[in-house]
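As a warm-up, study this chain.
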Amino acid sequence: MVAVLATVLVLVLATAGLAVLRPGPVAGWLGGGATPSGAAAAPPEPDPPAVLAGPDANAPLPSGAGIRAVLDPLVRAAALGDRVNVSVADVTTGQALYGSGPDTPTVPASVTKLATAVAVLSARGPAHRIPTRAVAGANPGEVVLVGGGDPTLAVDRKNAFYPGAARLDDLAGQVRAALGGTAPTKVIVDSSLFSGPVFEPGWDADIPTGGFGAAITALMTDGARKDPAQARRTAEETNHAADRVPQPDLTAGRQFAKLLGLAGSAAQVTRGTAPAAGAAGQPGAELGTVESLPVIRQVDIMISDSDNVIAEAMARQVALAKGKPGSFVGGAAATDEVLGGLGLPAGEISLADGSGLSRTNRISPSLLTDLITLAGNGSHPELAAIFGGLPVGGWSGTLDERYRADATRTGAGVVRAKTGTLSGVNAIAGTVTTADGRLLTFAVLTDRTQGSLDETRQALDRITSALAGCGCR
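Now compare it with the structure written out below.
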């Protein structure tokens, strides 16, 4: 495991070098606090020594013929079905090294989250935080809870599913202080920032009830989990599935009402719209605000845990940043616009959602390798945040139990990738370091598999392990 960890650190330094070696911007994105007034400034810490050298920038580039000789037989594996589309490229130069249907749009499943991550990091920036506000209602004592689209909002610290999340109990304290002697009488929930259906029409019928999806509303707590404390305890054994509440915005409103001392009557919580901004003491006056985890942290969780609810919320943030409706349609259109603006081939992506649950999504393998190259080559440092959450082969996330067989062991620790799985659909995209130390990016998408899931995953892992184990020159 020490050897694996060493390799992981090498790859982290390579793929997120700006974040690891130049921590200043990341500290800013995460909201590092300044020295308190009157406190003595601590002496600056010395620069940390390099733990390990990164991959050799002068390592030999694999040849297309060398990679083809190794991958062609593996791509034809029966377990991958009759439609396997592949792209392999060099991260440093962006040079395409191998392709089999590389420009063919294919069902990507959860690999879609890489596109969502790049879009929201570009459109909103890593430091952006999503506000949840409370404003005065039209009548004395009425409080309007205004959702800003933060899926990680918690009720309190003890039961929060997402560590460090903004909390309703903090907001309730601000409201009580702002109201002074006026007692709260009613909570109105304003979740109008998001529009359209709460479930994407292309989702499988069991998604709303299967524990991996939820109704997407602009106001929710703990990703709409019914029992966030229990979900946190069982996250690993359930692969992050959990029971979700059917109306996340009203549930959040009732939780907030209870914190304000209004427990007991459902009539005290209704949907509505916040009045226009008003002066202190007037309808629409702000009573309090809490802000979400920064986008960089939400992207990390979205990728590492394959959190579908965060993904849909991030897609809507892209939509709002681009002046489009906060809906499935708006998020998809805005993501396409942002990726095109980054110079990526927007004609090779067609999305219906931000999570990859929809079977109508299409992404080409070459767009994914182009996207990963763009995030990893240093030209857009804000995009490097996608690498922090990538699962590591044989080590973490959805790759924890993979790359342990003899035929795939060479990929352990050196393959970092996002996986995607729907019935009949299996995908993987990420980075790998070759035996010569060259950093490559790959994407393998299959959407007509019929064999067992284990066999398909083994076949995918053999492809990426082969890249890890060869110089391919």
